[in-house]
Amino acid sequence: MEWKITADTAKLLGRTAEIDGTLWLSYSASGTEWICRDSECTIVLAGDFQSGDPVHSPRYAVEIDGYRVAEETMGSSRESVRVGCGEDGSVIRVIKLSESADSTMGIAAVICDTKPEPTPRKNRTIEFIGDSITCGYGVDGELGDLYRTANEDATKAYAYLTAQAADADYSMVSFSGYGIISGYTESGTRRIDSLVPPVYRTMGDSYGAFADRVKPRDMAWDFAKLQPDLVVVNLGTNDASYCGEDAARQREYIDEYKRFLQTVRACNPGAQILCTLGIMDQRLCGSMEQAAREYREESGDGRIATMRFALQDMENDGIAVDWHPSAVTHKKAAKQLTAFLFDRYFGKE
């Protein structure tokens, strides 16, 4: 029997969109999770027009009871994955490993005899807003490799690892090269085509399109569907390539950061907000902290804090594609962030 993946049949992970019966995924680590009571099931996946592209094809993973049983980039617009389940039922998870910018993918159907059941929601939910670091850019490659979705895996990045350690549901809103006032630039010229604030309220920003016709940026996200307990913002690494040590540009970053915090608060009225920075570049850490401090003083919103990540140790911990954090660095960052969250928000467990 063919079943559609909806909130009635599965737990939806992160921001998802239903179009013509297919559950579409754009953001890193978005996906779905359900309980299968049959001995096996077939998962039918849909890809957009980027499927098969050697750089931009969507990458995904399938897990059974926490063990990865499939990990592929989509080579066509329609693919199926058959998986076996345990005698007493198994938890099946399908996750988009690659980021929004490259492509989108969907879960068209699940074929099994028994109706899938949603797994229970966790007691806490964390939203992560970030850039390539949050996406797990190049984590499955090494310095000298060319970036492609085949070496990107959001589940090996600090954000996903922190959610797992905190036993939290999650949502990722992250784009490689994006910033608050400028995307990454090598020339010092401001990049306004790669900014997170204009697309934060949407389903993403992608070369691809849901069902090859709906651009994620044109589809608003309904924040009522998923209200996090905590929002972690990690933006400024790309802005630093534009701001450098220029005081006027740093001031602009501070002002725009404060405006973005107003947006985050408006969209997530009940959440704590944690501003972080520093894994790859620490030049704007002080500006990030000043933005949070000024926002708190001007708004009276006391539910905001800051944390500086330790700078990556490339000599001892390795380095991934384009000088990005290695898997070892991500694990260290997740450990630091998790400890901070339990100390400040979740209690010592």
Tags for this entry?
Rossmann fold, 2 domains, 349 residues, six-stranded antiparallel sheet, alpha+beta, 17 strands, Jelly Rolls, 22% helix
Helices, by number, come to 7
Query: How would a crystallographer describe the biggest sheet?
Result: 6 strands, antiparallel
Residue-averaged pLDDT, rounded? 97
DSSP summary, beta strand count: 17
Architecture of the largest domain, according to CATH? 3-Layer(aba) Sandwich
Tell me the overall shape. globular
The CATH superfamily label of the largest domain reads: SGNH hydrolase
Q: What is the SS-derived class?
A: alpha+beta
Number of domains: 2
Quaternary state, please? single chain
Q: What helical percentage do the residues reach?
A: 10-25%
Sequence of secondary-structure elements: EEEEEEEEEEEEEHHEEHHEHEHH
According to CATH, the fold-level topology of the largest domain is Rossmann fold
Query: If you compute it from the alpha carbons, what radius of gyration comes out, rounded to the nearest whole angstrom?
Result: 20 Å
Low-confidence stretches: none
Q: What fraction of residues sit in β-strands?
A: 25-35%
Q: What is the class of the largest domain in the CATH system?
A: Alpha Beta
**Beginning-to-end CA distance, first to last residue:** 43 Å
